[in-house]
Amino acid sequence: MDVMCHSNFQPLIIYPEGYFSIFPNNDMKLIKVLNKLYFSQITSTHYCIAYKTKADLKEYLSFIHYEMDNISTYEGSIHQEELPDSFDIFSLKTIYEHTFHENTVDIIKHGEFISFLQPIVNLKNESILGFESLLRVKDQSIFPSQLFEVAKKTNMLSLLDQKAQEVAIQGRYNKLQKGIKSFINFIPSTISNPELCIKQTYQIAMKYKVSPDDLVFEVAETENIVNLDHLINILKKYKDYGMKVALDDVGLNFSILDKLSKIQPDYLSINKKFIQDCHLNEDKQAFLNSILQIANKLNICVLAKGIEHKGEYDYLKLLGVHLGQGYYIGRPSETPSTLGLKNTKLNV
Known about the structure:
The chain is an alpha/beta fold. The chain folds into 2 domains: 3-100, no CATH class; 112-324, EAL domain (TIM Barrel), CATH 3.20.20.450. It has helices at residues 28-36, 54-67, 92-100, 102-110, 144-153, 157-171, 194-207, 228-240, 260-263, 282-297, 310-319, and strands at 18-23, 40-43, 46-51, 75-79, 90-91, 113-122, 127-137, 181-186, 215-219, 244-250, 267-270, 301-304, 323-324. The strands form 2 sheets. Strands 6-7-8-9-10-11-12-13 form an 8-stranded mixed barrel, surrounded by 4 helices. Strands 2-3-1-4-5 form a 5-stranded antiparallel beta sheet. Strand 10 (244-250), helix 9 and strand 11 form a beta-alpha-beta unit. The longest helix is centred in the last third of the chain and has 16 residues, at 282-297.
């Protein structure tokens, strides 16, 4: 997938030895800090220092980070030549995070990824509807949460998000038969050009002979949605190419419930905080019932995530929730499987 269809990605290389430039924009406090570190003044807006090792670069960055309130507001560049014809400009915060998380950044750029699959069942008849695809590093050297945290800090979330999507589509090849859905998370803010991005996603599906109808793209971080029109445009493009769409973690952002008719997702998933002990908590039961009524009116399937106990499962099934996912049903694994339900029909 072409990185140009995604926003916020630009390659940053931390050379073992090179030059570190900073453009202080006449900030006297930063200029005083650079003078303490013996940066050379190249022009009135450009200061530079050579570093012999990455440890030297870390020392400079650590000192600047300690002395300044917010280094994300300043720009800098790492380069091999003392005075290159042009500079690749990044915020000092991005340079700092890349330097101090170099191993993880290298995994994001060049690591080998796989998808773990967690089953999603139809609660009415206990048959498999599909699997959520969850990104993992193949050698399990880093937790997924750490991977995405560093990607966010280093401005590489777009790159990691696009890799996760392709790995998920590729990962179902020879594992899941046609008709079994793959739920794939995506982050709307990383998509700057919906038409180009989703066309390329469709092309990846064709490459691996995956039916678009078997792909469900699930909005990650629903609670952080800012630009609703942009989200609606993205979801429409997915649907135009024959794919399904879902909203994740509904309940954390209550305002999204008022906009369901406008967003028109095929599925919505309920955050596990509303599922845990739902069979014992009347407030959670009232919330789940109201969600289900709204979804049924709009012909949206409701997925309950985080089901860990039989009592939760039995209550949700009795209530009429359409789909379920969680450790009681099956844990994420490299191969499709279910653990908790003896009678689950796993036809894959």
